[in-house]
Amino acid sequence: MQLSALETNTLDVEDFRRLGVRPQECRSLVIRQAAARRSRSLARLQLTSPTPNTELQLSRIATSAYRLLDPRKRVDFLQRVRVGRVLATSFPWGNQGQFRVDSADAAAANGEATEPYSSRDEEPFFFEVEYTQAYADNLEDRVAFSNWVQSLDSEDLILAAPRRHRIATLRRSIQHPRMILALIGLVLVTLYGVSQLDFRPETIAIRRVESEPSLTENETETEMETDTEPTVLSPSAQGTNQTEPSSTSGPAESGPADEQVASVDPPSQTGPSLPKNPMATSEVTPASPEIAEQPLMAPLAPKTASPPALPPAAAVEEMESQLTDSAPVLADTQLALTDESKLTEESGFLPDPFAAVAMNEIGTARSPDHADIPRTADKQPDAPVIEVERADLKTLLPEPSESEQNRAIARWKLAIPQIGTPLTPSQIPRVIQQIETSVASLSDADVDAYVAHRLIAQYAWLIETPDQVNARLQRLPPLFAVSIDRLLTQAYLAAENNADMLETQQHLARNGLVLAEHHLTFERFEDCENVLAVATRLATTSANRERILDVQQLTQALEQAQRMQTTVSRLDLTNPDAESPSDLGVAGRYYCLMLRRWDEGLPWLVHASDTRLANLARQEMEMTNASTATDWNELADRWILAADRSDGRSADSLRYHVIALKRRAAGLSNGFEEKLNRDREIEQAESALPFYLRQASDGQSLGHESPASQPAATDASEIPLLEPATADESTPLSGSPNIAGVLAAVELASLN
What we know:
Distance between the termini: 123 Å
Largest sheet: none
Strand content: under 5%
Number of strands: 0
Radius of gyration: 52 Å
């Protein structure tokens, strides 16, 4: 059966699917955008490599687009109106009856029969509309017609960017009458506000202060001549009076200046009168440098200032000879020097360090090289408290510099060649013994002795416990201004270079965790971080998985403590009433669970957000000395339940506190069987702790010194066994070298 034209040109659902729009889409802009989007890639493909299949797909997309844009293909009346953009009142001959469904069906049924694939309906259609006077009569019709014509223009917004759409939308919103009125009102209000501002500069009334007139040279000479008794002024007074007053000097400054002039001495019977030239007078240098160098600005100094101490007699004679040589000789004038006893009187003003420069500027004949700069070294002694502090500082020697320590290490390496070479655990005690024997002939305050103790501790970290290393360094803090923690850290960091064997690496990593725990407890985070970095490298090198896990756990605890420390540092814990309960709870968790300082943080742990911990802390605070061993043991059991519900550093700190409570309960127990039960519970709780916390709970931390003869107990399974000594190594030392002579020879060779 041959297909008819009606069946071929009917709008189908496949046309909507081909363009990717919904089946009831009536917006022409959406349809054209969909057609352009679907045909863009096919058109590029057809241009690069033409194929019949691509051409057929493009033809179908174009056909479907025309069908969707043809209002005559729409069955629904409203869809025909929306697709064709035709309003019911736009044309004089258009009425609602012409857009009915039955009229469209009749027109389609009575259409001329054409070939199946060639129909006049598929050709482009045009609305032939003439612009008549009917459109000018209706403003709304004109706007609708212009919009309709603009939508069919070639510059339509089919492929325009979203930015162009937004600009068009903004332009339409600005052109709204209400928006225009609002902008006009805003401009008027702004202009009115600007007109009310006063940009003229404000006038400031300046009152002129007249200074008191100073005496001129002629008036001064007249006043002196009228005196009944002739007087001779010292050169310092002449320089002060003859100098012009400063422009900044006020009336209040001229009074004290006149009152505090240097003393006036009577002239000798044969001495001449006062010369009229002040420059010639200033060239004459008296015997006392303090009176001669009276500063120009001395009257401005406060009256309560203490007078400076006079220079010694030897310094006075030396300065007097220098000034006498530099001053010119006056042949025509004979001046009588003032009495030395009166010139050595204490001046009422402090010496001005720039007096020599000022005197040189006004024309004195003295040069700046011979200017008398006041000395402040010969002042009165400081307060007694400061003297006591200085006495304390004098007892401690400064820590040797890094260059001095490096030179001392080089000398020790020449004296004992085994230093700095790979050593087995059995050879390290022999090197330590050699250094101890050699350092006995040196003074404890010597740099070589300081470095020797450092080297001993450096090697001791490889085979001994932290308590034993701590005991070896106890001789240095009383002599040098350095802390024991700094010495321990420096020795440990340097010991990494000497850990050449697997046994020494494992032992040094284990000691590093104990030292890091000690630094973390006392908030020395930087030292703890440095020690953990070395322990991490050693644990990784020795491939000890247990040590790697311990280092990771302690590193996480350090990072958490640093974060909490930033919050706690802002609190004023000396006045807890001024802080909020939540902040106090954070401080309690920081001191108890991070630093293990329960005696300080337990009162603040009562305010913790965890009600379980807060209740247990409150119960422990209520315990008294009258509490029995059973009470303390029951409290420790409740803390164990809280530790089981926690993890990480918090759980370890809680178990550490449980051990302390269990030991207190064991001390109060009476029966033998009860003490055995408490000891068994303590051992069980210690087994759950890391080894570095077990040593702290046993009192083996660095804060507790162990005697050298009784080293602290350590788990034998954790310390590597020493290698058996060979026949050569077991031979006792024939004698230690004369370290003083060797070091002196090395120092002499380095100087030459």
